[in-house]
Structures are given as structure tokens and as C-alpha cells.
Specification:
Elements (H helix, E strand, L loop, with lengths): L2 H11 L3 H4 L9 H9 L8 E6 L4 H14 L4 E4 L11 E3 L2 E2 L2 H18 L3 H15 L4 E5 L16 E4 L7 H4 L3 H8 L9 E3 L7 H10 L4 E3 H4 L1 E5 L8 E7 L2 E7 L6 H15 L8 H9 L1 H5 L6 E4 L3 E5 L4 H13 L5 E5 L8 H4 L7 E4 L10 H9 L5 E3 L3 H11 L5 E5 L2 H5 L5
Parallel strand pairs: 1-5, 1-6, 2-5, 6-7, 7-8, 13-17, 14-15, 14-17, 15-16
Antiparallel strand pairs: 2-3, 3-4, 9-10, 10-11, 12-13
Length: 430
């Protein structure tokens, strides 16, 4: 099989949530455990950090991987979904798994895959664990795909669990209250394994405390222990600076991820590092600062408040729920501009009303759709947006939409592309 034939097989033979949504979701760990058993339980061959949360888990995972790399370790990083290439999901020290390794894994295990019929995500998790074990990583940072308790990644016993925050997303699987969603994400808390909560909520704190107590796991609410204040930065600079106050005093950190929401992630990242110092050597202040400044360089992270061009300014962001979009809108309002243009696409299994209610009515909208069965049609999104006073045209393809908007936009205008990870993924110049 060629690499393309292998991808075609994976996408067509295995149900993939990224494409089809709910029908690909497996509400148990049976297939993952069966796959891991067949592979010799590779998830037990390396030490790991497990990261869950509604928003911020991707940025947090990449930040922790970058810091560990700067400390001199060989670091695996498993994240999802991918933006441009399947191989983005599985990295070691920022280097993606090779296409040859993907082909070899599928060819070797194809009969077993066809026997137990795992989901695409279950198969990919097993592939990542096998790759990290074979390459003898020192540590692996593992990002939860969806939820926590029943997520395929939840077969590991990590050194540390991190839950970034709780918001309303994937409610058809996780529950329709913050408490219910928190309980699903708290499912990654393991017996005796410390857990860091990056951003606490009154509605969810008791849930985390209850589960942590039942598991005899130390729990740290990072935002209660670490204060993070944004320092005014030149918008042209490649980093954001934050002033941090904790029990040790005051310090400053620069992060090469410029989204406003990184302020909420930073407390959790720093608290996680403090806990990891108990078991991992070399996590000095200098190493932490270098790691935070080099997240993109070390890990290849894309799509987080990413600037695509100047004059007019074009940004994209993978935020796709109300909490994420709220932060994006605040950052857009704070960015100097004349007119504002939105290129917006969303998924058809989301309640889009909470997001649409946050968007600025004064912006000019172009509605698009990702080339996936799970995408909401641009026409349907336009109709629903009009109910919130958001008006614009339909151009289904995001790249065609961007070209058209750039013809209309002036040098001092601002263009934003987002609403769905999959819309951002299809941008040619990402």
C-alpha cells in the first residue's frame, strides 16, 4: 500500500468523528485496550502527562511538550484533530511520524483492525502509543480527544493529569450541564496521580474535589494559586508577555502564542511544571521560559490566533465553541482596524446559537463550509446567522471566500477566518 492508499483505507474503513460525527464515537475503552494488548501494551512503556479540557488542551499540551524538549528530553506529543496532514497527530520532538511508519503499522495490523473494527481515533491512539514505545521517548504528552472518562487515550496512567477548563461543547456525548461535563473530564483522574485544574468554575469545583478525593489524588486549582496578568505588547511582536505572581513572588514570561486565551492557560501550564518537578529533573526557570517562547518552533503548532498576512491583517483561529469564540471576539475588538470581515464555517452537530449570539453585528460576513459530511452547509449557517442580525454572502470554499474578501478589504481592515477547526484546516496558506 502507498501512503495515500493507506490514508484512503483509514478514512473509508474506519469511522472518523472528524468527518461524520456521532456515529464514530465509541462509548467504551474496549477496542483501545484490545489494540494495546495486541501491540504488547505500548502505553505502559513510557511516562506520560494527560491533558483534557473544553478549551486550551491543545495549546497546553504543546507548551508542556516544548518545555520538556528544552529540558533535553525526547518527548512524544499526541494531539487531534490534525489540520493539514494525518502525521501531525503523532510527533516526537516536533518531528511528525513518517509516512512509511504509518503504512507499515496499518499493513502489519490490518487483519486485526478489520477483525475488531476500531474507530479511526482508537486506531490512531494505538499507533501513537506504539510509535512512542518503539522510539523510546522519555515522556509523552497525550491530549484527550473528546471528554475524558471514555476517551481512547484514557488507558494510560500518567505522572500528572491536567484539565484546562470546562465549557459547553460536545454536549450530545458529555451532558448538558457544566457539572455533568466536568464529571466526564474528571474521568482522567487516576488513583494517586496529581491533577491540575487550570481554570476553575464555581459549578465544577466540587465535582473535581469529589473525584480527586475518591481517587486519593492531590488536586491543584492553578488560577487560585497563580495570578497571570497580561502586559501590553506591540501587536507586531511575535510573543505575548505576562506578569505572574505566586507564592514564590513575581516573574514574567513570554509566550509565542498570541491569543488572549493563553492568559487562562498559563497558570495551568506553570502549575503543571511545578508538580512535574517532583518527578522530572531539569525543569529550571530558564528552561520553562525558553520552552514557552519556542512552542511553535519546537512543536509546529498551528491555528492558534495565527496571523496569515498583513495589510489587511488576516487572522485565523480554531476556537469553535462559545467560550473560545468569546475570547476571539474580544481580541478582534482590541485589534486596531477600520472594517471587520468574518469568514465563518461551523459543524452541523453543534448548537450554533450561543456562538452566533456573540458575534459582532457590524462585521461583514461570508459563510463557508468545510469539505466534510459533518460540516454545516453555508446556506444553513447563513440562515441561522440572519436570526442574530449577522448578514453576508455564501461562498462555500474557504479559500475562494478569502480571495473574494481580500479584493474588497482595504489595507487597514481586519479579516478573521474561523468557527470550525476544519474550516481553518482547509486554508491554503496556513
Amino acid at each position: 500500500m502507498t501512503y495515500q492508499e493507506t490514508l484512503d483505507y483509514l478514512f473509508n474503513a474506519l469511522p472518523i468523528f472528524q468527518r461524520v460525527g456521532k456515529s464514530a464515537y465509541k462509548a467504551n475503552l474496549d477496542n483501545t485496550l484490545a489494540l494495546c494488548s495486541r501491540l504488547g501494551d505500548p502505553h505502559q512503556a513510557f511516562k506520560s502527562i494527560h491533558v483534557a479540557g473544553t478549551n486550551g488542551k491543545g495549546s497546553t499540551s504543546h507548551a508542556l511538550a516544548s518545555i520538556l524538549q528544552e529540558a533535553g528530553y525526547k518527548v512524544g506529543l499526541y494531539t487531534s484533530p490534525h489540520l493539514k496532514s494525518f502525521t501531525e497527530r503523532i510527533k516526537i520532538n516536533g518531528k511528525e511520524i513518517s509516512e512509511e511508519a504509518v503504512v507499515a503499522f496499518v499493513q502489519k495490523h490490518k487483519p486485526f483492525l478489520e477483525e475488531i473494527k476500531p474507530s479511526f481515533f482508537e486506531m490512531t491512539v494505538a499507533m501513537a502509543f506504539a510509535h512512542f514505545a518503539a522510539q523510546q521517548v522519555d515522556y509523552a504528552v497525550i491530549e484527550v480527544g473528546l471528554g475524558g472518562r471514555l476517551d481512547s487515550t484514557n488507558v494510560i496512567t500518567p505522572l500528572l493529569s491536567v484539565i484546562t477548563n470546562i465549557g459547553y461543547d460536545h454536549m450530545q456525548f458529555l451532558g448538558d450541564t457544566l457539572e455533568a461535563i466536568a464529571r466526564e473530564k474528571a474521568g482522567i483522574i487516576k488513583p494517586g496521580v496529581p491533577v491540575v485544574i487550570s481554570e476553575s468554575h464555581a459549578e465544577t469545583k466540587a465535582v473535581f474535589e469529589e473525584v480527586a478525593h475518591a481517587q486519593d489524588a492531590r488536586i491543584y486549582f492553578a488560577d487560585a494559586m497563580i495570578s497571570v496578568i497580561s502586559v501590553e505588547n506591540n501587536p507586531d511582536e511575535s510573543f505575548r508577555e505576562y506578569r505572574v505572581e505566586d507564592r514564590k513572588g513575581e516573574n514574567s514570561y513570554r509566550i509565542d502564542l498570541r491569543g488572549n486565551y493563553q492568559q487562562k492557560n498559563l497558570a495551568g501550564i506553570l502549575m503543571a511544571v511545578e508538580v512535574l518537578k517532583e518527578s522530572i529533573a531539569g525543569l529550571t526557570e530558564e528552561v520553562v521560559k525558553r520552552g514557552l517562547c519556542r512552542i511553535i518552533a519546537n512543536t509546529g503548532l498551528k491555528g492558534r490566533w495565527q496571523k496569515l498576512q498583513e495589510r489587511p491583517l488576516v487572522f485565523c483561529d480554531t476556537g469553535h465553541n462559545a467560550e473560545g469564540i468569546k475570547m476571539v471576539v474580544e481580541q478582534l475588538r482590541a485589534t486596531p482596524h477600520q472594517r471587520l470581515f468574518f469568514i465563518l464555517g461551523m459543524s452541523n452537530d453543534k448548537d450554533v446559537a450561543p456562538v452566533l449570539s456573540l458575534l459582532p453585528r457590524e462585521a461583514s460576513y461570508t459563510f463557508c463550509e468545510a469539505k466534510l459530511p459533518r460540516a454545516m452547509s453555508a446556506e444553513s449557517l447563513q440562515a441561522q446567522a440572519e436570526e442574530f442580525g449577522l448578514r453576508g454572502s455564501v461562498v462555500a470554499d474557504v479559500n475562494v471566500a478569502l480571495k473574494q474578501v481580500l479584493k474588497e478589504a482595504g489595507e487597514d481592515d481586519l479579516v478573521f477566518v474561523g468557527g470550525s477547526t476544519f474550516v481553518v484546516a482547509e486554508l491554503d496558506n496556513l
